[in-house]
Structure formats: structure tokens, C-alpha cells
Amino acid sequence: MREIFYGEAINEAMREEMRHDPRVFLMGEDVAHGYGGGIFGISRGLLQEFGEELVVETPICESTIAGAAVGAAVVGMRPIAEIMFADFITLASDHIVNSAAKMQYSYQGEIPLPVVFRIPFGAGRGAGAHYSQSLEAWVMHVPGLKVVMPSTPYDAKGLLKSSIRDENPVVFFEHKFLYRSLKGRVPEEEYTLPLGLADVKRRGRDLTIIATGMMVQRSLLAAETLSKEGIEAEVLDPRTLLPLDKETLVESVKKTGKALIIHEACLTGGPGGEIAALLADEAFEHLEAPIKRIGAPFVPIPASPILETAYLPQPEKIVKEARELVYWK
């Protein structure tokens, strides 16, 4: 085991899969020449190893990127299409939602569609309202897609490799704040992680905290604070939002009797509502308190660092809500 950054883990996953399968290639804005390997440096070194045929610089047109990726998958390639910011998925949504998601259904499964849309998302860099959104709930609403959101370097590498090998379109959300801020242990030997399997990041008995993306790290910080008070929180990361590992989520809440759901996206219409509905349906008789959710307020994301900090769910708020749940009467 060695420790590498979240962004380095994603780079390694792409590099290994491009070595493993000559049909795998990367395409997107600035992925080859710009900024030394993409705007965040995630494709650094790939052009030098694989050349311009497999590391393809595209025009500044997300619709073209998504459409070309779908076409390449149809004819037997395995494209990784980088959409520079999650906010720009709006421009690529026609091909993601109306082409990629529906093609296998329309052709009765005769055409595999192995395409991965890599989506850097999230706030924390002071980038403002047009470059910081968390829009995973939008694509969760589309049958035919798989939606993945890793929270650690280990998960990012293993899940991306599995996504590239999958025969279905995958929307892979990467939190851009974690690229150079989070290190974790990652094996040097090859490994993959199955899609659709949640991971318990911390065992506990008093309540279940279900968190996604960067909120997993903040939930773990909150759990450490709670532990000093004698409250043991179980922190659970779905890792894959579609398909959702319902069994693991439900079993954890049945054990603890309390559920706190946290995501960075706006609380209104966020993925936590779907998870809360699942728990209400399948674990209701085990609940000892109401299901609680934490998310961002229903406003555009501010660029001011002070306001952005206030906008994002912080560990202190998680601790406060967890205490209220544990001592609910």
C-alpha cells in the first residue's frame, strides 16, 4: 500500500485501463495539451504515453463530446468522455439522456454501450455559481444510466476501472476539491470494485450517517467528535447512486434505528430524498426517530470563500443534527 491523492488515483485507473485495452481512450477539452493534462491535471502524462489518437483534444462543445463518445461506443470503442465541470452537463444532456441511456433499450440490448462520462463536480474552490454545482440527482432520474460517486482515492480508482469495463453508460462524478486535498491508501497491484455496492466507512451502533462525495470525509470528522461524547455513528457511503445498494443501507438503519442523510447538493430535490423514501418504505418499523437530511440551501453557490463555507454542510452541523437524533424523544 502507498498513499496517493484522489486525482492521482483517477489518473492511474485511466492509465491502467488504456494499457489493458486498446479500445479505451480519453476525450475532452484540454485533456491532451491544456494545463499539463486537463484543467485539473488529471490526465497528466497520458498524452506522452498513448499519443493523440487515444488522448483526444476536443472543441469547446460538450454536446459534441458526448455525442462523439456515444458514437465511438456504438462502433466498438470504450471512450472516457470528460465534461470539464458538472455544470456543463446541461449542454451534454441530450446525448447522455436521450442517446446513451436509451440506446440499449431501443435496440433490445443488441448494442453494448461502454461509455464513461467523467464529471468533476462540487464546491469548495471559490469557483462560483456556474462551476460548483452537484447535479447527480438529475441523472439519477434517468433509466439506463449508472451513476457513481467515489469519496476516497481507493474507491475512485477501483470504481473507475469497473466503470470503464462496464457495458453500460456510466456517469462518474469526481469531487474536484478532493483531487489535490485528499490522500488515501491505494494498492499498487491491480484491483476493481463492483458497482452497486455500498461501503461502511466507520462502524457504529447509535445512528447511521449516509453521506456522499466530500460529505463522507466531513461525516467521518463529525463521527470522531461524536465518539468523544460516547455516541458511535456508523458512516455509510453508497458509492454508487444507480444502482443503489438498498440492502446495506436498510440493514444499517435497522441496526441503529436512526438515519441522517448528508449530501452537498441542494436539499430540495437532492439524492437524499430518494434514500429517505427507501428507508421509510423498508425500515419504518425499526426507526426510533424521524429521518433527517442535511444539504445545501436552495440558492446559487456563492464565490465568496466565507459565504461558500456557510453554504456547504460543515462537520459542526452534522454533529448537531446527530446529537438531536440520538437524544430524540
Mean pLDDT: 96
Looking at the overall shape, the CATH architecture of the largest domain is: 3-Layer(aba) Sandwich
Helix content: 25-40%
The outline comes out as globular
What fraction strand? 15-25%
Q: How many strands appear in the DSSP assignment?
A: 14
CATH superfamily of the largest domain: Thiamin diphosphate (ThDP)-binding fold, Pyr/PP domains
**Structure annotation, total helices:** 11
End-to-end CA span? 46 Å
Cross-sheet strand order for the largest sheet: 3-2-4-5-7-6-12
Instruction: Report on the biggest sheet.
Output: 7 strands, mixed
**Low-confidence region ranges:** none
The SS-based structural class is: alpha/beta
Count of folded domains: 2
What is the C-level CATH assignment of the largest domain?
A: Alpha Beta
CATH topology of the largest domain: Rossmann fold
Write the element-wise H/E pattern from the N-terminal end onward. Answer: EHEHEHEHEHEHEEEEHEEHEHEHH
How large, in whole angstroms, is the Cα Rg?
20 Å
Question: What are the key terms here?
Answer:
329 residues, Rossmann fold
Describe this structure in words.
By secondary structure, this protein is an alpha/beta fold. It folds into 2 domains: 185 residues, Thiamin diphosphate (ThDP)-binding fold, Pyr/PP domains (Rossmann fold, 3-Layer(aba) Sandwich), CATH 3.40.50; 128 residues, Rossmann fold (3-Layer(aba) Sandwich). It is built from 11 helices and 14 strands. The strands form 3 sheets. A 7-stranded mixed β-sheet has the order 3-2-4-5-7-6-12, sandwiched between helices. Helix 4 links the parallel strand 4 and strand 5. The protein is globular and about 60 Å long.
